[in-house]
Specification:
Radius of gyration: 19 Å
Structural class: alpha/beta
Number of helices: 10
Largest sheet: 6 strands, parallel
Helix content: 40-55%
Strand content: 5-15%
Length: 237
């Protein structure tokens, strides 16, 4: 009997809108750096390099928080900035994530509402990139979704990334110490979502409605293209 369902955030709960967060940050910083004669191409390359560093840390399981990313990007611009401009750049970096209008994937709201009606607890297990867990929760609150989740574990707050079992353990604790064998995790990535759920004893569902991960790693117990398909899986559990 499944008592709790946890969800990955990026590509599972929501995805970037037409204007990506990288584009939003590039535009914001380019405006602030106009008098410093830093072209948008340089800003973009700086963010791409910072994201590459983040990805290396993420795969190695070493923390590289949004604050660390913003500070690293300022240092890598290659120009001297005043303390005031530095603060403005850091604020703009964070604001791009805080005000982003992401796209919630189809069927999520209805599925979460049905899970609540059934008494199934729901949580979030998220590896953050340049946007903090606090900002992602604020987005969910603006969209009327936060109250449909009973707990969460964001990597910048827990201090580890998936597939470290500690982030799954934190999420299950936040849901009332649900036993792992009575929980199910929904996520899009085999290396993090599927692998860690398997290692910690959760049932695994890979959601490919936004991103179809083709990494050559073990598959989940179930693969779905729409969130509503989860309900049929639970009916068979």
């Amino acid at each position: 009997m499944i008592e709790a369902v946890t969800y990955d955030f990026w590509e599972t709960i929501a995805r970037e809108a037409h204007e990506s967060l990288m584009e939003r940050r590039t535009r914001a910083w380019s405006e602030l750096l106009r008098d410093s004669e830093v072209p948008p191409e340089t800003v973009r390359r700086t963010f791409e390099e910072t994201w590459r560093i983040h990805s290396e840390h993420w795969r190695a399981g070493r923390q590289f928080s949004p604050v660390m990313a913003a500070e690293r990007a300022v240092e890598d611009l290659g120009v001297t900035v005043s303390p005031r401009l530095r603060d403005d750049l850091l604020d703009a970096f964070a604001d791009a994530g805080a005000t982003a209008d992401l796209i919630v994937n189809d069927g999520l709201h209805e599925t979460l509402s049905e899970l609540r009606r059934r008494g199934v607890r729901t949580g979030i297990i998220c590896d953050v990139g340049f946007t903090s867990g606090e900002q992602l929760r604020a987005f969910l609150e603006r969209r009327g979704l936060l109250t449909l989740f009973d707990g969460w574990a964001f990597s910048d707050e827990v201090g580890v990334y998936k597939p470290d079992p500690a982030i799954f353990a934190r999420a299950l604790t936040s849901l009332g110490d649900v036993p792992a064998d009575r929980a199910l995790h929904v996520g899009d990535l085999r290396r993090t979502d599927v692998a860690c759920a398997r290692a910690t004893g959760l049932a695994r569902v890979r959601y490919r409605g936004s991103n179809d991960d083709e990494e050559d790693l073990p598959e989940a117990d179930h693969v779905i293209d729409h969130h509503a398909e989860l309900l049929a899986i639970l009916d068979r559990s």
